[in-house]
Structure formats: C-alpha cells, structure tokens
Amino acid sequence: MSSIKPSRRWQPAFYPFKKEKFGRRLLGKTELLIKGPLFGCRMCGNCLLQETAFICPMECPKGMRNGPCGGITPSKNCYIDETRKCIWYCIYKRAAQLGREEMLLEVLPPLDWEKVGTETWGEVVRQIRITGTAKFIKDILSKDKDRKSKTWDSVFKTIRQPDWWQGDSDYHAPGYREPVSELERRLRNGEFVVATEVTPPLSANADKLIKDIELVKPYVTAINFTDSSSARPRMSSIACSKVAHDLNVEPVLQIAARDTTRTRLQADIIGVNELGIFNILCISGDSTKVGPSPMGSMNLLDIDSVQMLWLLRRMRDEGIYLDGRKMKDPPKLFLGAASSPFVSDPKLQAIRDHKKVNAGAQFFQTNLVFNADKLDPWLEQLDKRNILNKVYILIGIAPLKSFKVAEYLHTKVPGVNLPDNVLSRMEKAGEGAPEEGTQIALELIESIKNKKGVNGIHIMSLGWESVVRRIVTDSGLLRK
Ligand code: SF4
User: Fold this and answer.
1) How many alpha carbons lie under 13 Å from residue 398 in its C-beta half-sphere?
2) Measured in whole angstroms, how far is the alpha carbon of residue 358 from the centre of its chain?
3) 198, 297, 313, 419: most buried, per Cβ within 10 A?
4) How far, in Å, CA of 466 to CA of 168, rounded?
5) Closest residue (by CA) to atom 6 of ligand 1?
6) What phi and psi values does residue 367 have, to the nearest 5 degrees?
C-alpha cells in the first residue's frame, strides 16, 4: 500500500507541504500497518469500521460509504472490477453473521478531506480521556448492555458523526404539510401514478426533446430526465427539466452522485427551486468504467446518494447548509431515490432502502422489473421494516422493442434480470417484437398494480417515447 495517500498526492513524497508532528506521523504509520491487513483500511481518516462490520468500505471503487450501488453482479461481484466481490455485499454478509445488521442503518457522513490520510487513533484516545479512561474501561467490561453501548458511542459515535453531520438510524418525517409538487399531491391522494423518462438530447438543439415531451405529456404525471446515464454526456438534467417546466410538464430532476460535489449540490438545489423544479431523484450514477474513453475518475466525486438525501432533507426541514449556515428561505423538495430490488438478497436490499428512507427518500423509482412475482420478497422485507407507509414506490417498466434490447438489458445492465420466458417470447416474435414487448409490459403492469406498497409505475421507454401513449391507455391508467 502506498504511503502517499490519494488526498495528498500533490505533495512531494519526502517533504510534505502539510507538516505533521512526528508523533502523529508515527501513529498514522502504525495504524496503517495494523488496520491495513486486518480490516483492509485505506486510511480515510474518517473511520467508520464500527458501523461496517469491521470491513473498510473505502475498498469500493466508487468510494460508497453508505451501502452498495445497484451494480452488484449476479455472482455478487463488483461490476467495475468483476474479479472482486462487492465490498458492500461482504459488509452486509458479515454484519448479518455478527448480528450487526441494524447498525448499517446509520447515515454516515461524507469524508472530511482535511483528515484523509491521517490517523484516527489519536482522536479515539482524546475522546476516551474526555469520557474518563477509568469509566470507559469499566463500562466496556460491564455486562450492562445499555451502559456499554452508551459509553462506546460517547467515544466512537462522536468521532464518526461530527457536529456538521449528526447522522443517525432514525426515520425523520418530512417537516412540511402541503405537497410541493403534483407528483407528491397525487401520490398522497392515493392515485396510481405514471411517470416516464425522456432521453436528453446529444446536442445543444432541444427540438427533439420538446417533441418527445409533448408526445408523452398527456399520459403521465411527471417526466424524469437522466443525468448523463452510462456516464455518457448529454444535455443536462437541469436544462431538460427547465424545458419541461416551461412546457407545463412536471420534471423529476435526476442528480448523479458521480458528478456531484457537496458545494455544487447545495448551489444547484437552491437554483432549481427558483426555476420551479421540486422533484429530485438522488442516484449514485453509472461508473465512468461503462462510459466512453478516455475514462474519468471512477470515484464518486464527493458525496453518495444517501448523503445527498440526508443533506437535502436537512436543507429543506432545518433550513441549514452542510456547514451549519442558516438560510432564510429553505428549498421545497420532494425527494426520491433509486432502488434495485433484485440486485442482491431482498433482505440486504431492504436494509439499503430502509437507510435511504431514513435519510430522506419519499419515493422510490425502481430498476427495471420483468418478473412480478420476484418483487414480492422485496416488498415483504420492506413491509417487515415498516417502511411501506413511509415511501411511495414506482415500479420501473420497460417496453422491449426488440430481442437485441432484451438481451442487452439481461446481460449488460446490473440489477436487471429477464426471465427465460420473456427472452424466448421476444426471440420468437421476430418482426412482431415491438408488439410482443408491449404486451409483456402490459401483462407486468396488470400483475403489479394491486400489490401492497406499489403506488405507480415509471415507464422507461429507452428512446421509444411513442409507446407511452399505448401503454398508459391499454393498461387503463389514463387519467380521466
Ligand atoms: S458493486 Fe458498487 S458498491 Fe459494490 S464494490 Fe462495486 S462499486 Fe462499490
């Protein structure tokens, strides 16, 4: 492991700009020597091993600090480097073995980059002294579980949850009454809602975008605009959302953590609120590994999707920026998140989704579903966690236009799985594939629309916007 940490890579190896006392440097080296081989420690300087079943999540190529992305392969490996197990899958498994699953619910902060590459043991010693060394030792050895965990948290929670973050494992109901958007209003009214996605254009000309928006407008409540999906740049989601808003269509602005810094996020949110955009979908975003060459950084830039939800919820409900500054007019936001019901064990996925709801997700838009029955175990797990009444779920539906599209989704898109009968129906359909794909979508809608916890569908037309009218009318979901 290199002794020059990523956060310090601009420093000369033997003459660091930021000089640290010899004792601190020695402690840092010792910490790395011990924690490196034991826990896979990457010296992030913001240690959270307590909450991650003693496996360092910084091994994740994306740097996810609050759970897995939707990219775990069927063999539970990482889609960025298929030779390795997804580190978050390993954390979930270990946590289940150790009976520490519920600890995974705590919303963990983004890195304080000032600390990256430095030791955390000195901080632990300082906190133990504040608690009282004798008291700490006595309580930790005590059989009284409450006392033990209180004292433990007084040291370690203080370190991993700084004042500017204050993350926890609790649900925080939205701090406002009136719905902020039409999407929220309809969901609250108990309507079965239809949303769709329009692909942002590849050029600076919005004519096709406007045409596509007009095409689907009469049939849906809201339209999502992706944020450079597959890490391929397109017209920005903000620009597309503004175009839609000007056409009297309600947008869902997607923001990918991949390209977002904490500063950019807070600034954009205030700006888009002023433009009349209130539905925000926070996603991790596809890795640059699946994007075009030359490849950009695979890391999430600064903040993950769970952290985005937590930060935005606090901006809205507490009227504060991440740095603690108060704002006079907080933004109005209806916050959403992506969910991938089939990407791993439904029980593990439900923990991830529970965390998103606690962080601030009010609605989920799921990855593509092609097997209605397979949804049940996931919905049951969410129900067991008592969160079906705290989040609205829109199921992702894609009408397949050809067998090629079906095969691509099945083999190339993480978290998407097409059953054999769907694949063979599409293959046999030949020229009639678009009609067969439409029928499959209609059958799926019929079998999911009455499931407990399902509040609507999200049609991902994959560039086939003209099919939305047919799907909505033939499924009987057209609003009168
Ligand atoms: S699949 Fe996602 S969460 Fe898991 S290791 Fe890879 S990038 Fe990280």
Assistant:
1) 24
2) 13
3) 198
4) 45
5) 78
6) -65, 170
Q: Give the pLDDT band of residue 5 (cuts 50, 70, 90).
A: low
Give yes or no for residue 55 CB within 6 A of ligand 1: no
For 422-434, what is the mean pLDDT? 95
In the block, tokens 């597959």 appear at: 230
For residue 102, how far is its CA from the centre of ligand 1 (angstroms)?
Answer: 20
Render the burial of 368-398: b for 16+ CB within 10 Å, e for the rest: bbbbbeebeebbbbbeebebbebbbbbbbbb
Is residue 56 classed as helix, strand or coil in its secondary structure? coil
- Distance of CA 86 from the midpoint of ligand 1 (Å): 5
Atom of ligand 1 nearest to the CA of 81: 6
Q: With beta carbons less than 8 A apart as the criterion, state whether 474 and 210 touch.
A: no
pTM above 0.90, yes or no: yes
At 92-111, the pLDDT tens digits run 999 999 999 999 999 999 99
Q: Which of 79, 93, 298, 305 to mutate to test the pocket of ligand 1 (most atoms within 8 A of CB)?
A: 79
Helical pair 262-274 and 237-246, crossing angle rounded to 10 deg: 10
